[in-house]
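Lab notes, practical 5.
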Amino acid sequence: MTDELGLHRAEASTHLENLPSQRVLRRNGFSPYGVAHSSIFLDGSWRDGLLWERVLGD
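Output from the prediction step:
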C-alpha cells in the first residue's frame, strides 16, 4: 500500500482516556509522540488528544 500511494508516514489522534483505541494503534505499529492540548471537542468541552505516528516501511 505504501508503494501504491507513495506514503511515508501515518498519523492518528486519540482521546487521552481512550485506551482501547490506543491498544489498536500500538498493535499496528504506531507510537505516541505528543499531546495536542484542547484538540478534541467531546461531551461539551475541549479535551486533550494523544498524537500517534508510524513511519511506513519500517
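Observations recorded by the TA: Residues 2-55 form one domain. The chain has a mean pLDDT of 91.
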